Amino acid sequence: METIKDNLLKELAKADTWEAVEKIRVAFLGRQGIITNLNKNVDMRAMNTDTRKAWGRNFNTLKTWAEDAVAAAKANAKITVKANVDLTLPPAPSSLGSVHPISLVQIEIEQIFQGMGFTVGSGIHVESEYYNFSALNIPDDHPAREMQDTFWLTNGQVLRTHTSNMQVRMLQNYGAPLKAIFPGRCFRYEAVDASHENTFYQVEGIMVDHNISIANLIAIMRELLSSVFHQNITVRLRPGYFPFVEPGFELDCQCLICKGHGCKTCKNSGWIELLPCGMIHPKVLAEGKINPDEYTGFAFGLGLTRLAMMKYNIPEIRLFNSGEIDFLKQFVPAIA
Ligand code: PHE
Asked: Which of 171, 234, 242, 333 could form a disulfide with 99 if both were Cys (CB 3.0 to 4.6 A apart)?
């Protein structure tokens, strides 16, 4: 037993890692260990009572001592391992999430407009027929209602089909002059494919004051797009029909992928349809309790989802709501 003790101490003195100590424990105290076998190999029946008692005592003392010695060595070994940690290494990657690409673009746009003195509002999703359609000069039987496939609720309300539902609400609440944007989620009864979703995001904006003209509209839109894309971009205005603006436009930007030469993204036209807009219809101003003889204004409805697709080169709209971690973690939180 004394020899075994000496050997165990010598072995433990050499072991400097937890794993090495564990190996020694197995060699001495494991099921086939030296100490364990000691008891197995002795013939208790050949011993007289006193010898047997003495043997049992000594054996248990040895075993307990050995277990304590191994435990102490393990405790020390652990400290050794910790002391080996290189504190100069950079931190391990964080498991925190990233900002969703739509949120990234939305926050960026909010900052751009706040810099130009615009108020940022929000919006409601469950809306009355009045604010979503009628107040925007889209009467009950008007075919323009069919331009937007609508989710109707059983109580006659709708899931808003566009952020324009907030136009008249904002005018009624704040009056003129008013510069405001109001981003948010919209819903349409769409067959989902690579570029259509039933849930998507827009940023609506209005500017109402004395003498607001199309020149103001174009200047603000150009400023918006250059800031988002961090480069000067070429835009063009085409006539577009929306009952709540007059005149109404589709604002296209020259395709950033092919610089206007024509490619798959712009369907070879060289232009990307990005921003429906126009001068607010006098009837809409009147619904908002603004005198159209005194004030004019413009409104726009930017497709936030489409903008994020352009900006980050995302070819598939379904990725946004997919919850796919590999997709989402590419977007580093870039906002302080
Ligand atoms: N609300 C319109 C749509 O979603 C876009 C729009 C907004 C057009 C503001 C003109 C002015 O299609």
From this structure: 333
Distance 50 CA to ligand 1 centre (A): 101
**CB distance 228 to 307 below 8 Å:** yes
Is residue 200 in contact with ligand 1, taking CB distance under 6 Å?
Answer: no
Compute the distance from residue 164 Cα to the ligand 1 centre, in Å: 6
Within-domain flag for 91: no
- For the entire predicted model, the pTM comes to 0.69
Residues 297-316 have pLDDT tens digits of 999 999 998 888 888 888 78
11: containing domain:
2-76
Give the contacts of 333 (CB within 8 A, at least 6 positions apart): 98, 99
Q: Residue 311 sits in a domain of what CATH number?
A: 3.30.930.10
Which of ligand 1's atoms lies nearest the C-alpha of 202? 4
| Bond preceding residue 143 cis, omega within 30 of 0 | no
Amino acid making up residue 304: L
**124-162 pLDDT, tens per residue?**
999 999 999 999 999 888 877 776 789 999 999 999 999
